[in-house]
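Review session, final week

We close the course with one last complete record, chosen because it touches almost every idea we covered. It is (2Fe-2S)-binding protein, a protein from Mycobacterium lacus with 425 residues. Go through it on your own first, then we will talk.
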Amino acid sequence: MPHFAKPAAGSWTQNYPELGTAPVDYTDSVDPAFFETEREAIFKRTWLNVGRVERLPRTGSYFTKELPSAGRGMSVIVVKTKDGSVKAFHNLCRHRGNKLVWNDYPHEETSGTCRQFTCKYHAWRYSLDGELTFIQQEDEFFDVDKSRYGLVPVRCEVWEGFIFVNLDQHAKPLADYLGPLAKGIEGYPFHEMTEVYSYKAEVGSNWKLFIDAFAEFYHAPVLHQGQYTKEEAAKILKYGFEALHYEVASPHGMISVWGGQSPPADLNMVKPMDRVLRSGLFGPWERPDIEGLDPLPPGVNPAKAKQWGIDSFHFFPNFMLLIWAPGWYLTYHYWPTAVDKHIFEGTLYFVPPKNARERLAQELAAVTFKEYALQDANTLEATQTMIGTKVVRDFPLCDQEILLRSLHKVAGDYVKEYSNNGAAR
């Protein structure tokens, strides 16, 4: 018997009949040709989150973002201009193609504040709006019209403080792309949560496999039982896991799950360190006193379940946003670099601590998250290796893995549409 109500269709998966219930072909995660088409069909044509507006506190603040998923060497500059708007440009000097903004190592990202961008090679200069303003020894050139040689712009829009770019100048507006899932969480106090902890790692698997790992909690009682006390781990393993709610709003989706450890109903459920610092995986136990958490936006905890703990939103292709009941949030990004490699970024956002105890509580949540992420990542290279043998191609997915089913279908649909029509655009 299910612990929580399922749709009238009988299951969450059957509630979205376009997904089907047949085993899913994972060739899309091991085929190099499919991956190269993904780069063109997906990462060059969809909205990609590259950061938050808090990284641009003043006029001239900028950061660079490497986008290897869209092609080798792809890099953008994101900058706050004089009128307060956020703009993005290809990180390329119009003279001889040198990378415009970098420090000691051209493949590393950087950030800072400036009045203009100056190329290291021949000192061509560009305004914050991307206009070419200075050419070294301009009289040596032949009828160069500076107005024609500004930085190449990249589509850039902001939603709730999240900065997105799109390499496709013909793409639909960001708000239309994000759709109702994003609309439902507008008003959440993301802007109040400016204490940041971040992790970055290269993972030896296809990018979709790590999204798969975080898009279901079916594995949690098994893979993560070492994070609980022995007694609690046995109880959770026997109970199993079910989510409160799923929603597929293609190409995106979300899962809402129960919590219970912030604070736990019984202190014996958690380890001594959690009790001392009043924190853990679910974050600090004391909810911050800020506006926007009560009431929550309508799209948060859509089932309105009293057991609610986390909502995990997947905005296709590679951005996941997790809102936690104790009043903080977490983001994941997956940047593929090859069919069997990607860069994973995990970032935690809290309301700034008011004292040392609150800071330690946040740090415990951050290191606990890192341990969980390592446990998830630890399985990925083994999965990648074995599905790469192609001994088995199709794998059965349960009802709790509905978002995996959706992800692989959406990726396949984008590739198919591009192969049939998009390449000619």
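Two points worth writing down before the exam:
The mean pLDDT is 92.
The chain has two domains: 25-40+183-424, 48-170.
Good luck, everyone.
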